[in-house]
Design a protein that fits this description.
Blueprint lengths: L4 E6 L3 H12 L5 E7 L6 H7 L4 E3 L2 H4 L7 E4 L6 H10 L3 E5 L6 H14 L3 E4 L7 H10 L6 E9 L13 H4 L12 H12 L4 E7 L10 E7 L5 E7 L8 E6 L2 E6 L2 E6 L4 E5 L5 H13 L9 H20 L3 E2 L2
Parallel strand pairs: 1-2, 1-4, 2-3, 4-5, 5-6, 7-10
Antiparallel strand pairs: 7-11, 8-9, 8-15, 9-10, 11-12, 12-13, 13-14
Helix pairs in contact: 4-5, 5-10, 6-8, 8-10
């Protein structure tokens, strides 16, 4: 990168403070924080100390107009992601947006249309796409090293409560204004990963269960994916059912593949087994390093606004299926 990209930050919550800020503060040759927006005016002095020299705002609409800002980092409560992204694009800024980019397909379409109109880019901060295991898995699947893809089983259960570094106590999660519940927050990572590995499903069947009044409509969602090839997949997600034995199995006509920590284990139909070491690493840091390269004109963006929209399309079908108790097409 020749010149530093000058950033304005909207949303100084936990994900910014715990994840993005420490990384960007270590990347001062690539990024410079020129402005920030905080809803609570009383917190301005604190953030002026932590981000010295950055202009302070309490209205993101004013901040995105700041001529010293090249790009806006959107780390707001997820139901605000789209409106801030649209305002930044309209102001002629590139956007680094936390997932999900939007919670409705029509709004995702508006964002993509605004990208075209302005010539600016939305870089969705989806760190799962920067896991070093992913290209290895893609090579096995696309190269048919274990034959044709038949099915997958993916389980991600954990307990989202006050012990989760404060995430489970945030009011926008406890009094959510977005569909389904936590699958639209933490679970959207998994949808992005599944779409990248297997492509878009053509229809879904899903059931949802609720065990508590807060934290969204459903605490557990079990979904079956149907693909155009005839392959299927089962995805079980919960932010209520604590489990340390989550798993990911992928089955093929000539064997199977499963993820075991930083290893990928291949089991061949003839009985042979092999392990591939794939260090997991810091996916957030890897993401920002790669985004810096892409912004400077090197490399291809692995997760585009279209990919982000596809995640919304899948989750929209999940919601339709739960509500109708029928298979729903992915539109």
């Amino acid at each position: 990168m020749g010149m530093k990209l000058r950033l304005g930050i909207v949303g100084l919550g936990l994900i910014w403070e715990n994840i993005h800020m420490p990384i960007l503060m270590d990347m001062k040759e690539q990024f410079e924080i020129k402005a920030f927006c905080v809803h609570n005016e009383k917190k301005i002095p604190l953030w002026q100390q932590r981000l010295p020299g950055a202009a302070a705002y309490t209205d993101y609409r004013r901040m995105v107009q700041d001529i010293s800002v090249d790009a806006v980092v959107v780390t707001t409560p997820l139901e605000m992601n789209a409106e801030v992204t649209l305002a930044a694009l309209e102001a002629g800024k590139d956007v680094f947006c936390e997932k999900p980019m939007a919670v409705h397909v029509d709004v995702a379409d508006r964002i993509m249309e605004m990208e075209k109109q302005t010539g600016k880019t939305v870089y969705v901060l989806e760190q799962f796409l920067y896991n070093p295991q992913l290209p290895v898995m893609k090579k096995i699947i696309d190269g048919k090293q274990l034959g044709e893809f038949v099915s997958f089983e993916r389980t991600t259960h954990y307990l989202m409560d006050s012990s989760n570094e404060g995430y489970g106590q945030t009011q926008w999660r406890r009094k959510s204004d977005f569909p389904l519940g936590h699958i639209y927050d933490g679970g959207v990572h998994e949808i992005a990963l599944l779409n990248e590995l297997f492509g878009m499903p053509e229809e879904m069947y899903a059931v949802g269960q609720s065990f508590r009044e807060e934290m969204g409509k459903y605490d557990h969602i079990l979904t079956m994916f149907h693909y155009p090839s005839g392959a299927t997949g089962v995805f079980s997600h919960s932010a209520f059912l604590a489990c340390s034995k989550n798993y990911f199995y992928i089955r093929f006509t000539e064997g199977s593949l499963y993820v075991y920590g930083d290893k990928l284990v291949l089991e061949h139909k003839n009985g042979g087994t092999e392990e591939l070491n794939t260090a997991e690493g810091d996916t957030y840091r890897a993401m920002w390093m790669e985004l810096a390269r892409i912004v400077s004109g090197h490399g291809k963006l692995p997760f585009t606004a279209q990919d982000a929209k596809n995640c919304v399309r899948v989750l929209d079908a999940v919601e339709q299926s739960i509500e109708s108790d029928q298979c729903a097409p992915v539109k």
